[in-house]
Amino acid sequence: MPRIAQLARRAASLLLLPACLTAPAAHAQAYPNKPIRIVVPYPAGGGLDVMARLLGDRLGKRLGQPAVIENKPGAGTIIGADAVAKAAPDGYTLMLTADTTVTLNQHLYAKLPYDPVKDFTPVTQLVQLNQLLVLNTEVPAQNLKELIAYAKANPGKLNYASYGSGTPPHLAMETLKNIAGISVTHVPYKGLPQAVPAVLAGEVQMTFSGAASSMAHIKSGRLRAIAIGGKSRLSIMPEVPTFTELGYPEVPASTWFGVFVPAGTPRDIVAKLHTEFKALMTDPEFVQKEVVAKGYELSANSPEEFTALIAAEIVRNAKAVKISGAKAE
Question: According to a count of CB atoms within 10 Å of the terminal CB, is the N or C end of the chain lower?
C-alpha cells in the first residue's frame, strides 16, 4: 500500500510538471488582464503629457485593457519617478518621461530617493526633440559664426533665456559659451512658455527651443534659427544646420521622451511593451501628424539600444552640469 501511495504521489507530480514548464508562456498570454497605469511626472497639458494621452488611448485599444494616464509632477520629476521605482514590477505601472529623470537629476541633486539606473528598466525611446538656438532678429548675426564673433566683440551685452538652472537651454548655452569662449548672461524664467516670448519682446536676445514652440515665429520672421541639436537636420526646417556640422558636437541641445518600467519587470512583458509601442510609433499617420509635424525625430529603439543611449548621456550631462555649475533649484 505504501508503495502504491508513493507511485501515486510521483504520478501526480509528473502531471503537474507540464503546467510548471508552461507557466512563463501562460504568464505572457495573460498579460495584461487589468488596466495599465502610465505615470507622467509632469503637469497635464505639456507636450509629453499630450503624447502620453495619445499613445495611452491607442495602447489600450491594442491591448484590450485601459491605459490610464496619471500625472505626478513635482521636484523635477522626482515625485513621479519615485512612485514608479517603488511600484510592483509586474508590467502594470509604466513611466513616460523625458531624459531629465534618468540622465540629469543625479548630477543636479545631492541625493535622490531612487537610483535612475538600477531602479528602472528602459522599454523604448519614443522620440528625440532637438533644440533650436533662436535669436531675436535685432541681433546682428545671421549664423552661429557671426553670433560668436559678435559676442566676443561685445562681452556681456547679450542675454539668453532658460527655464531654470540645469534645464536644457541652460546646459546647452553654458556648454557653447565654454567651448566658444564667449560671455552671455543667463536670465532664468519660470518656464518655456515665458522664455520664447521674452526673446520675441527683446527682453533677452536668444534661447533654445523646440520647433513646436518656435516654428511659427521663425516662419513669420520674428525669430531667427541659427543651429539645432542632434545628428541630422530637421526635415521640416532643413535650412538650419546642426551644431555638429558647425563644429560644436558637444553642445547638448536635445531632449527625448521614453518609456520605462520598474526594475525586475519580466523580460517577456518588457519585450511585449516594446513591440506595442514600436507599432504605435511607426504608424504612418501618427508619425506624420504627431511626430514629424511637431518637430520630433522618431526613435522607437530597442531596450538594449535605449540603455546604451542613457549610459552615454549620463556621461555627457555630467560634463555639461560641471561646466554650467548648475544645481537643483
Answer: N
Nearest to 113 by CA among 58, 74, 66, 169: 74
Look at residues 10, 79, 16 and name the one whose alpha carbon lies nearest to residue 42: 79
Q: What is the CA radius of gyration of the chain?
A: 24
Q: What is the dihedral of CA 255, 261, 262, 266, to 10 degrees?
A: -140
What 3-state DSSP class applies to 265? Answer: coil
**Is residue 14 included in any domain, yes or no?**
no
The pTM of the full predicted model, rounded to 2 decimals, is 0.84
**CA 248 distance to own-chain centroid:** 22
CA dist., res. 139 & res. 314, Å (int) = 34
123 and 160, same domain (yes or no): no
Q: What are phi and psi of 102, to 5 degrees?
A: -115, -10
Nearest-angstrom CA–CA distance, 60 and 63: 5
Per-residue pLDDT of 32-79, as tens digits, reads 999 999 999 998 888 899 999 999 999 999 999 999 999 999 998 999
> For residues 136, 219, 130 and 250, what is the CA-based torsion angle, rounded to 10 degrees?
-40
Q: Count structural domains, the chain.
A: 2
CB 208 within 8 A of CB 168: yes
Backbone angles phi, psi at 297, to 5 degrees: -115, 120
Give the range among 2-6, 50-54, 105-109, 319-323 with minimum mean pLDDT. Answer: 2-6
Instruction: List, for residues 140-174, the tens digit of each pLDDT value.
Output: 999 999 999 999 999 989 999 998 888 889 999 99
What CATH number does the domain containing 137 carry? Answer: 3.40.190.10
Question: What DSSP character marks residue 119?
Answer: S
The reply to whether 160 falls in a domain is yes
CA dist 114 and 111 (Å) reads 9
| Angle subtended by helix axes 303-324 and 267-281, to nearest 10 | 80
